[in-house]
Structure formats: structure tokens, C-alpha cells
Write a structure and sequence with these properties.
alpha+beta, 5-stranded antiparallel β-sheet, two-stranded antiparallel ribbon, 29% helix
């Protein structure tokens, strides 16, 4: 009997320790869902956001935002983009827990074990870039990025 309880405890402990898998690169299905989205602010100014899951590192989410900015730049017929503003957040919504309890009394004893995983419906890691698109020679600016080079360097490593 004790062996079954220990086996159940071990199995639930492993289940509780599982992390959310990293998100796959692609468009977001809706607000708070993993993936990219963009908003056009002006003719050549956009806000690009990549929302990840708790399984995504901040670096991965920031790389995905840059990849989407590069794709958008090329889709719009431009060569480079300048990041004029950036913001990244990592929240701890949701989580995993394990609880163990035991009770004795009244001529008997009991043992309880529980595991939970809560999902908030919103992703936990997000990077947002405000970008301005341009063509021709890249400005001598540390925030200017050649779109093709970004894709060449970041797409294979992060997708």
C-alpha cells in the first residue's frame, strides 16, 4: 500500500515540475496568446509585439520580435528598420503546485496528495518594439538593423 502512495507521489511530483513548452514562431491567435502581432502607427512606423509562454526565455521572445520586425520591413519593400522604443516584460501568471497532507484519528488514517497547474489565459513573456522602416543606406545608428542580416542571424537560431 505504501509503495502505491510513493509511486503516485513521485508521478505527481514529475507532472508538477513540468514547464510549459516554448512557443512556436507565428502570428498570435488573439490578445495574450503566444505569437506576434503588429500595429501600424504611421506610414513607416509600426509597433511589433511578440508574446511568449513561460517556456520562452526573454532572449527568445526578443529575438522573435526582431525577426518579425525584419519580416515586416521586407514585406513593406524596405531594407532596414530602426528600433525607436523597446519594452519587455515577464510575468508569473499561472503556475504549478504540489500539496501533501496526512490525517490520523478516529481509528483510521488517511493520506492525500494533490497537484495543480493554473493557466491564466495570457502568456507570460512579451517583447514590444516600435520601429521605423527605411530604404537605401542604413543610418549610422546603434538601433538601426539590416532586415536581411537580422533574418540571416536570428531566424535559424530561434525558429
Amino acid at each position: 500500500m505504501m509503495f502505491k502512495q510513493l509511486t503516485a507521489l513521485a508521478a505527481l511530483s514529475l507532472l508538477a515540475a513540468c514547464a510549459t513548452a516554448p512557443s512556436a514562431y507565428g502570428p498570435s491567435a488573439g490578445p495574450g496568446d503566444p505569437g506576434f502581432s503588429q500595429t501600424q502607427i504611421e506610414n513607416t512606423r509600426f509597433r511589433v509585439t511578440y508574446t511568449g509562454t513561460s517556456g520562452d526565455s526573454m532572449q527568445r521572445v526578443q529575438d522573435f520580435a526582431l525577426v518579425r520586425a525584419a519580416e515586416l520591413t521586407l514585406e513593406r519593400g524596405h531594407d532596414w528598420f530602426i528600433v525607436t522604443n523597446r519594452h519587455a516584460t515577464k510575468s508569473r501568471a499561472g503556475g504549478t503546485g504540489l500539496s501533501i497532507g496526512a490525517g490520523f484519528g478516529g481509528g483510521g488514517s488517511g493520506f492525500g496528495l494533490g497537484a495543480n497547474r493554473s493557466f491564466s489565459g495570457r502568456a507570460e513573456t512579451e517583447a514590444s518594439l516600435e520601429i521605423v522602416l527605411g530604404s537605401g543606406s542604413i543610418p549610422n545608428n546603434g538601433n538601426a538593423h539590416d532586415a536581411r542580416t537580422v533574418l540571416l542571424n536570428l531566424r535559424p537560431a530561434s525558429i
